[in-house]
Amino acid sequence: MLCLIIMVSDTNERARKKRRNTLRLRHLDYASSRAYFITVCAADGRCAFSDTRTAEKALEVLKKARERNSYKIYAYCLMPDHLHLLVNPGDSGVAVSRFLQTFKSQTGYWYKREHEGNLWQRGFYDHVVRKSEDLAKIAQYILNNPVRKNLTENADDYPFSGMWDMIE
């Protein structure tokens, strides 16, 4: 019996992991004044935001980041294991990736001091909202997430979601 063993070089494996394909559109300026539907996941699928104190801290940092960067946050929903945002950088000149990097860094630093492990998964998912899409419907989808996941019967009763800015 012949046994063939193929070994993958550790160096090649590390290089492959580092080389992540980006899903961002290369030609798009992610600081442009338009709406973006963002999803940021907690690390390892953990339900970090089931803890009220962690959820409140994350939203406090998000609100401060919004004010500091003059971002519009049309809708947000902090679920136990992820965050949905409908944002618009407006005229801030701050790219979505930079905005989220700062937010995740600040909340992640706080989380590490209070708990063990990382708070956020690497990266985020984004959807550039097209002009033909209805922002109100996307916002409603975000706000109804706790109802769909059976966390509440009424979206208005969920404490970690809402709208901070009016949809134009």
Task: Summarize the helices and strands and which ones pair or pack.
Blueprint: H1 10-18, E1 36-41, H2 52-69, E2 72-78, E3 82-88, H3 96-114, E4 125-128, H4 135-143, H5 145-148, E5 161-162
User: What is the beta-strand fraction?
Assistant: 15-25%
Task: Identify the CATH class.
Answer: Alpha Beta
Domain count: 1
Query: What is the helix content?
Result: 25-40%
CATH superfamily: Transposase IS200-like
Distance between the termini: 71 Å
Describe this structure in words.
This protein is an alpha+beta fold. It has a single domain, classed as 2-Layer Sandwich (Alpha-Beta Plaits), CATH 3.30.70. 35% of the residues lie in helices and 15% in strands. The protein contains 5 helices and 5 strands. The protein has helices at 10-18, 52-69, 96-114, 135-143, 145-148; strands spanning 36-41, 72-78, 82-88, 125-128, 161-162. Helix 2 packs antiparallel against helix 3. The longest helix is centred in the middle third of the chain and has 19 residues, at 96-114. The radius of gyration is 19 Å and the shape is globular. It starts with 9 loop residues before the first helix and ends in a 6-residue tail after the last strand.
